[in-house]
Structures are given as structure tokens and as C-alpha cells.
Amino acid sequence: MTRTGKTPKKALPAPVNPEINNLINLQIYLKDKRGLVEQAMADLMPGPVNPPAELARHLEAMRHSLFAGGKRVRPILCLAACEAVGGAVSQALPAAVALEYIHTYSLIHDDLPAMDDDELRRGQPTNHILYGEAGAILAGDGLLTLAFELLSGGLPADIEPGARLRIINIIARAAGSLGMVGGQAMDIGAEGREIDIETLREIHSRKTGALITAAVQAGAVIGGASLDQFAALTTYGEKIGLAFQIVDDLLNVEGNAEQLGKAAGSDADRCKATYPAVYGVERTRQLAEETVAGALKALADFDENSAPLRHLASYIISRNK
To answer: Taking the model in full, what pTM does it have?
Structure first.
């Protein structure tokens, strides 16, 4: 007690910045979902007993790139989109794993000498450095094919056939010549050339954005999204897919190999078409923020179940690798 006989009031706790809370909650969410995805990735990988030496090495090459680390953004977006429309994470997990298989295959092939010729990925030697070019090509082929084996035969039994076909079609189109592969072809063709901003946007939307959008769409279908919800989530996916690649462009300029887990400055070395090369760093940063704002606007009519998607959009422009 004080000299006046009054019990001193307890100091009020300092106000908590809601953005800090959001960040903490997002980190918990990401860790939890990353753990689920990686456990499922391991469980669903083929593992024959006593395979021939050549097959064992092939499976080892697949696992090397698959488990070398990674943010698991695409599978987590698939799970979060499913949750946003009231679906269960367990229903979307096989599709989420298939998306990560496809993404990893694309990284293996992207690192090849005939493509970007990178020796480091996620802080580890790239696949062809360890297993040779032929081994890396086959590891990528194996992961891509395994993804569609999983999508066609591994989705939960209570997902109706029409929905299964729709999911396979969404992901196949996003991964193929009208999506990721086509975007990579355009990206290689644009090296060393001046291109207009619409072409740059199309390259990014296909090369990176298409599979991110497909991840959101697949989760929406699995969760039973209405037509309006599917359309809104498609817009969200397109926006954050573009923002993700814009930020990748920025990080390639401003980051370092230790942060990124791969060589920094490689885009400029190869005269690649990027947003910083066209707009400069500051305007590129503004464009990333504007694109994410558009993604958040698309979620305006969703309830609190969409909170992870909202936080993931903000995470995309604040990440440093």
C-alpha cells in the first residue's frame, strides 16, 4: 500500500500492435500447415522394397529436391482456400502435395544448364550438380508424373468424379503450355530483348502465377465453393501469383545468396525481363503492394475463415527469400 492507504493501480499492459499478432498467428499457421504437407509428401512418395540400384538413385534424386527446404506456398494456399469456403484441410492435402511435386519438378528443370544454369537451390546443390543432367531431367519427370498419379487416384473417395476431373484439368492447364511451361518458354525467349509491360505481365502470370492460381482454385473446388466464391478466389490467386513473381524479381536485385538460398543478381546477368529492369526498384515495390491490395479486395465478402489467405497475401510482399 502507499502512504495514502490506497492500493496502487496496476499498470495497464502496453497496447499490442495487431500487425504483430497477425504475423505471429501466420507463422504458427505456416509452421503447422508446412508440417502437414511435408509429412504427406513423405508418406505419398513411392518406396519399393529393395529397388534396383538405378531406381534407388532416381528416387533419391527426387527426394533430394523435394525435401531440400522450401516455403510450401502453393500447397498451403490450396489448404487455406479449402478452409476459406468451409472445407476440411484433410480433403485438400493430396492435391496440395501434388502441387508441390509439380513445383519442385519445375525448379529442377529450371536449374538445368540449358535453362538458368544454377548450381544452388534452397541453399543446397541443384539436382543436376549431384545427379547429372539426365538424372535431374528424370527426377523432374518422375515428380510431374507422380503428381497426376496422385490427383487421379489419391483424392478422398467422397470427392465426386466431376470435381476430381475439374481439379485435374485446372492443375494440368496451369502446369502446361498455356501456363507455367509456356511462361518459361516466353521468359527464355525474352532474354536480352526489350519487351513491353503487357508481355512482361503475361510471362509472370503464366510462369509463376498460373500454378499459384490453380492451387487456390483446386482448394476452392475441394471445399465446395459456390460460383461467386470460385470467381473471387480466382481473382485473389491471379493477384497474389503476379505479386509473388514481382517480389521474386525484387529479391533477385536486393537479396543475397545466403538469404535466397540461390544466386542473387542472376536475372541481370542473363538480361532477363523483370519488373525492376522495366520500372526500377521503387515503382516495382509499389506495384507489388497494389497487386496485393487487389487480392485482399477480392476477399471482401468472405468471413473469418479466409484470415489465412489475407495474411498470406501480406506475407508475400514482406518475405525476404
So the answer is: 0.87
